[in-house]
Write a structure and sequence with these properties.
A alpha+beta (168); B alpha+beta (778); C alpha+beta (288); A: 168 residues; alpha+beta; Ubiquitin-like (UB roll); DNA polymerase, domain 1; 2 domains; two-stranded antiparallel ribbon; 32% helix; globular; B: 778 residues; Aldehyde Oxidoreductase, domain 4; Aldehyde Oxidoreductase, domain 3; binds FE2/S2 (inorganic) cluster
């Protein structure tokens, strides 16, 4: 039997202190301990990107990080992207441009796009496609995802990232 | 806000807010009190006898609640259901299985035992503690070798691996071929391998089962495309009444046909829940998904084509070998026979078509419906045939197609295969695609590039597919669709559909249909699906049928309620029902627009009953079952342009044009999305994807490290166009578009790459090494 | 369920502490840096250490700086740090170039150069770069520090000159003298996007325009990352025409054992190693 460890992680602005098995993956910590099920699992070999969240300001595959590695860190998940009841411009872009079908890859795609636009607020189509190379979508053929990111990029430069209420 | 419901407009999807915020509930997001977790021990061999299974150590691991093998479920859990068993052997039991392997395992990934534990991690640990003594047996992997008398046999009592063998007399077609030769025509021959694919929805399968012993009530959450069929067959498997089983399909992260199935784990989790008295969850791992969820395609095909010198195709002769893998899943045995053979004439008016077919068991995962199911195979063969003929006659592939198309005035048209096509205008779609891509200029450019030593290729594929299944008698259970529509007192409409959309956006499309019919904003329509306790008996979502069949049921139910509301409005307005019109959320009397009553008020009157005229039944609710008389036949032309790297053989798509005709488009935004995604999957088959087993039956593509699918930088920007040729098979005039992109794209890419290399045909997947070998004649 | 087998976790706050832990747990322990090779292997249970010593938070091992005639990189420096480093772009553009081809953004945010080199996956990109740049690899163990030339570091598939109780702490890159150009070229497989073949090339041109030094390393194709000496020998002293280069690269993998899998046969990998080598050398030349 291994020794559990106490970790403190700030997720979407809220601090959590939890005892976890060292082997618990961050994605399971988020989904099963904190019940933040918006982050998904699509593979077991770090290829698909369904599990992407921000850890300390960088996009990561949460299936390839142990919860104990996030100790003392800050995590942002899809649930925390916009204030309650609002949408982040990237979420709006995905909605507006039909950037999703089954929606399973979407939270990971949105978080990867978040990192992409953080690094490069005005990406070209090629840069967007390249920036999303760690995320697989089986439904959309990526075209509308590219449009969604372009749309988000425009919204973010005009609105200076003010989230809008849902259901506009 | 005006009425934003109009059909044919790009309405944003109402499904999206929950999906983009992480609030949607997929099956793995369900957490029940006291829930246990299940893992499955799978065979590491392609074919082996099971001597003994020792589960003692696993059972003793703290946190393990139970371990079950075939011995435990035998007599309690029935065989995996099969939709349409074919004679002679399958009707006598060939290919049938219990959810856990007995005596023998027949493919890498075959379930052997299950562990039920307090959490996933323990359930996983316990798998390593189960000791199975296997005696490896020789394997049948190559389908053509599996047909030989000396092949290892999967089902020994049948003494063969061939389940169904259809070889009608070929006398007539042979005579036509002989005549063609005598008249100076040409005969071309080709062998095509339509490789094995893994459907790979981003969400793997998953199940949660909960059982209440007191009244034998089983609730099963499953990531499925077929809630009602699953309920009906699972009930049989478990010896329960249909009404004792409730299937709930939550959000589903893609299916592509692989969730149009009833799998071992659904019965196993149910069994475990019944035994332990606690809810049981099983979530498939990606390596299980690649090994044990159905695979798609896997046919080996032989083609002979006869054409006149001037390019008229006079006969096609096909032999289709369907590799079914090791066991039967739901539609395994009928994919080739019911979906490939009828489509072997493609878009072309070919007087003579002959086909023979063998369906064969091998030591691989079962094959079944994967996006297109049988039709992509047919389209691929026919389209490759047209190119091979064009190549032989040194004619332009577009020209050969135009010359052989069924003409618009010939519809409805019965093909030589027996299929009855509803409507079409194939030439128009092809011309439009040529136009968009500026075909003549492109061929010029190709000449110049070739002169510079660059390998540029252009491929055309004109497809037609059969969807909206499907008329009476197609399956033993009927392929109708249903809708219950209820209008609340407030005027809000609730639609309960028997279909089970999982990404196709029908919550939006159906709301548009209803909003349009009732002239109310689509926002006032709620569409519910996936719970067998609240939705009427339906058949689910697959085969591009949801809008054409399910949408028609919704439309007809809505129309019925509209008539009733008109009668009520007529009495309220003291007019005749035939004079009542419905517009802008109010009923008016024709010719007297000042006399009107709001939609809401009529809805309230119907629901409260007191003000209803005598003879009118209270309430606004009706259920309609729609069973189409025939299938629909969407079509189109895709053109792909590639460049292949001389040095490495790496192909790159530089342009892609798709012109699709799915009849009326109810929501162009959704239609385009379906086409994009379809093309990506079709490109995947052409260039990337292939399930590979080695000669020992080991699966070599068991993770995404080895199973390749297209990612964003590898795909081009698709240029779309469309034509509209409605159908009268259903009241909406829609044909279906879920599979079109996949069916149309694969042959276009294959043709482009063959064209780039200047050869008639190359088998897929068209990976760099294969192309490099052709370029460098290695 | 793809989850690691159970282990005990020991976050180390210093190199000394990590070394002490390595000594204490011996064979049962493994170091964890970015985790992007180790955790996937543990999830598939290909690796089942009983003790995991996390060095990922030793921030003093994460740096890129100039020290006289060397650029030095801390063992725990991440790919993104390398990709975005102006210092490296100026002195060793090969490193950010190759790094930008590793995995994807999420992988590059976590993975470390030390982890990649210590792991020594023949399909990985940076081992070749480290070889081509003739890095000095500084490792620290119970007996203190020692420096291993890159040429002596990669022993075999997943095997290096690192002792079990040593930690890779620094890379020292000698600044180039003379007119030097470099490039990395990679032909990736379409599934994992690891290299089928890759090549890191550093070419120095002498006063007379001929090649005065060449350092060529091959990744992805051979069972261990190698310097392609035959290619180097065929280049040095010559005016680098296309024919000379084409002839030289045809020896890229001579005598080496090759990786063979569903993404490429032995023959294809040999030929592709030559193709990427030619491309890398040509680009390196253009950049001089
Ligand atoms: C999806 C995906 C795609 C990838 N694609 C590529 C690619 O295209 N090209 C490529 O090159 N790589 C690729 N990688 C691998 C990636 O580069 C790894 O991050 C890297 O190889 C390991 O670095 P790490 O810091 O993550 O090491 P870890 O995984 O933490 O450690 C790897 C091994 O090295 C040991 N180790 C780590 N640090 C040290 C140290 N300082 N001293 C001694 N031993 C140490 C560990 O004990 C372990 O055995 C990919 C990985 C993933 C998950
Ligand atoms: S689940 Fe993390 S990358 Fe697939
Ligand atoms: S929307 Fe289904 S996987 Fe991307």
């Amino acid at each position: 039997m291994t020794t559990k460890r106490s970790i403190t992680v700030t997720v979407n602005g809220q601090q959590h202190q939890t005892e976890v098995e060292p082997r618990m993956l961050l994605v399971h910590y988020l989904r099963e301990v904190l019940d933040l099920t918006g982050t998904h699992i699509g593979c077991n070999t770090s290829q698909c990107g369904a599990c992407v969240v921000m850890l300390n300001g960088e996009a990561i595959k949460s299936c390839t990080v142990l919860a104990v590695q996030a100790d003392g860190g800050e995590v942002l998940t899809i649930e925390g992207l916009a204030p309650e009841g609002g949408l982040h411009p990237i979420q709006e872009g995905f909605w507006e441009k039909h950037g999703l079908q089954c929606g399973f890859c979407t939270p990971g795609m949105i978080m990867a796009s978040y990192q992409l636009l953080k690094n490069n607020p005005h990406p070209t189509e090629t840069e967007i496609r390249r920036g999303l190379e760690g995320n697989i979508c089986r439904c959309t053929g990526y075209q509308n995802i590219v449009k969604a990111v372009q749309d988000a990029s425009e919204r973010m430069s005009t609105s200076a990232e003010t989230p809008v209420p849902a259901g506009d | 806000m005006g009425i934003a419901a109009m059909l044919g407009t790009p309405v944003k999807r109402r499904e999206d807010p929950r999906l983009i915020t992480g609030q949607a509930t997929y099956v793995d997001d369900i957490k029940l009190l006291g829930m246990l977790h299940m893992t499955v021990l799978r065979s590491p061999y392609g074919h082996a006898r099971i001597n003994t299974i020792n589960t003692d150590a696993a059972r003793q691991l703290p946190g393990v609640v139970a371990v079950y093998t075939a011995q435990d479920i035998k007599g309690t859990v029935g065989n995996i259901p099969v939709a349409a068993p074919l004679p002679p052997h399958i009707t006598s039991g060939m290919g049938r299985r219990l959810p856990l392997a007995e005596e023998k395992v027949r493919f890498y990934g075959d379930p052997v035992a299950i562990v039920i534990a307090e959490n996933r991690y323990i359930a996983r640990d316990a798998l390593d503690l189960i000791d199975v003594d296997y005696e490896p047996l020789p394997v049948a992997i190559d389908v053509e070798k599996a047909m030989q008398p000396d092949s290892p046999i999967l089902y020994e009592e049948f003494k063969t691996n061939v389940a169904t063998s259809m070889h009608p007399s070929s006398e007539q077609i042979d005579k036509i071929f002989a005549d063609t030769v005598a008249n100076g025509g040409v005969i071309v021959k080709e062998r095509f391998v339509n490789q094995r694919l893994a459907p790979s929805p981003m969400e793997t399968r998953g199940v949660v089962a909960e059982y209440r012993k007191s009244d034998k009530a089983l609730s099963l959450w499953s990531s499925s495309q077929i809630p009602h069929l699953l309920r009906n067959y699972l009930a049989i498997q478990l010896g329960l009444e249909q009404n004792q089983v409730r299937v709930i399909v939550p959000e589903v992260g893609g299916g592509f046909g692989c969730k149009l199935n009833i799998y071992p784990e659904e019965a196993l989790a149910s069994f475990a829940a019944m035994k332990t008295g606690r809810p049981v969850k099983w979530i498939e791992d990606r390596d299980e998904n690649l090994a044990a969820t159905i695979h798609g395609r896997d046919q080996v095909n032989y083609l002979e084509a006869a054409a006149t010198r001037d390019g008229k195709v006079v006969g096609l002769k096909f032999h289709v070998i369907s590799d079914m893998g090791s066991y039967l899943q739901f539609f395994t045995d009928v994919i080739a026979i019911a979906f490939t053979l009828p489509m072997l004439s493609g878009c072309y008016d070919i007087p003579n078509i002959y086909s023979s077919c063998d369906t064969v068991f091998t030591n691989k995962a079962p094959t079944d419906a994967y996006r297109g199911a049988g039709r992509p195979e047919a389209t691929y063969m026919v389209e490759r045939a047209m190119d091979v003929i064009a190549n032989e006659l040194k004619r332009d592939p577009a020209e050969i197609r135009l010359l052989n198309f069924v003409q618009p005035e010939q519809f409805p048209h019965t093909m030589a295969t027996g299929a009855l096509y509803d409507s079409g205008n194939y030439g128009a779609a092809l011309e439009k695609a040529l136009d968009i891509i500026a075909y003549d200029k492109l061929r010029e450019e190709q000449k110049q590039k070739r002169a510079q030593g660059k390998l540029m290729g252009i491929g055309i594929s004109s497809y037609v597919e059969m969807c909206g299944i499907g008329p009476k008698g197609t399956t033993p259970f009927g392929l109708y669709e249903s809708a219950r529509v209820r209008i609340e007192q407030s005027g809000t409409v609730i639609v309960y559909t028997g279909t089970s959309p999982h990404g196709q956006g029908e919550e939006t499309t159906f709301a548009q249909i209803v909003g349009n019919a009732l002239s109310i904003p689509q926002e006032k329509v709620l569409v519910l699906h996936g719970d067998t306790d609240s939705t009427p008996e339906g058949r689910g979502t697959y085969g591009s049928r949801t809008t054409s069949v399910g949408g028609s049921a919704v439309f007809q139910a809505t129309e019925r309620l509209k008539e009733k509301m008109k009668t009520i409005a007529a009495s309220m307005l003291e007019a005749s029902a035939s004079d009542i019109e419905l517009e802008d959320e109010k009923f008016t009397v024709a010719g007297s627009p000042q006399k009107s009553v709001p939609f809401k008020k009529v809805a309230a009157a119907a629901n409260t009953s007191n003000t209803l005229p005598p003879g009118i039944e209270p309430g606004l609710e009706t259920t309609v079952f729609f069973e189409p008389e025939a299938c629909t036949f969407p079509f189109g032309t895709h053109i792909c342009v590639v460049e292949v790297d001389q040095d490495t053989g790496e192909p790159e798509i530089t342009r892609y044009v798709a012109v699709d005709d799915c009849g009326k488009q109810l929501n162009p935004l959704i239609v385009a999305g379906q086409v994009h995604g379809g093309i990506a999957q079709g490109v995947g088959q052409a260039m990337y994807e292939e399930v590979v087993y080695n000669e020992d039956g080991q699966l070599l593509t068991s993770t995404f490290m080895d199973y390749a699918m297209p990612i964003a930088p590898e795909l081009p920007h698709f240029e779309l166009g469309h034509t509209v040729t409605p159908t009268n098979v259903n009241p909406l005039g829609v044909k279906g578009v879920g599979e079109a992109g996949t069916i149309g794209s694969t042959p276009a890419v294959a043709a482009a790459i063959a064209d780039a290399l200047g050869v008639a045909h190359i088998d897929m997947p068209l990976k760099s090494e294969k192309l490099w070998r052709i370029i460098h004649k290695q | 369920m793809s989850v690691p087998a159970a282990f005990d976790y020991h976050p180390a706050t210093s190199v000394d502490e990590a070394i002490a832990l390595l000594q204490q747990y011996g064979d049962e322990a493994k170091l964890l840096a970015g985790g992007h090779s180790l955790i996937p292997a543990m999830k598939l249970r290909l690796s089942q250490p009983e003790h995991l010593i996390d060095i990922g938070k030793i921030s003093s091992l994460s740096y890129i700086r100039e020290e006289q005639d060397h650029i030095v990189i801390g063992g725990l420096t991440t790919y993104v740090q390398i990709e975005q480093s102006d210092l490296l772009r100026k002195h060793f553009p090969l490193l950010p170039e190759a790094t930008s081809m590793v995995g994807d953004q999420q992988v590059r945010n976590r993975g470390t150069i030390g982890g990649s080199i210590a792991h020594s996956d023949p399909a990985a990109d940076l081992p070749g770069v480290v070889l081509a740049l003739k890095a000095e690899i500084v490792v620290q163990g119970p007996q203190g520090k020692r420096t291993i030339p890159a040429d002596d570091f990669f022993v075999d598939t997943f095997t290096t000159a690192l002792a079990p109780d040593e930690i890779l702490i620094e890379f020292r890159l000698p600044k180039a003298t003379g007119s030097t150009g470099s490039a990395y070229d990679k032909l990736a497989n379409k599934a994992s996007h690891y290299a089928i073949a890759g090549c890191a090339a550093v070419i120095t041109r002498g006063q007379d325009g001929s090649c005065s030094a060449a350092s060529i390393a091959i990744t992805g194709a051979t069972v261990r990352t190698i310097r392609a000496r035959a290619v180097e020998n065929a280049l040095v002293g010559k005016q680098l025409s296309e024919t000379v280069i084409a002839e030289a690269v045809s020896h890229a993998t001579d005598g080496e054992d090759m990786i063979v899998d569903i993404h490429g046969s032995e023959e294809y990998r040999r030929k592709m190693a030559a193709v990427v080598a030619r491309r890398a050398i040509m680009r390196a030349l253009e950049r001089i």
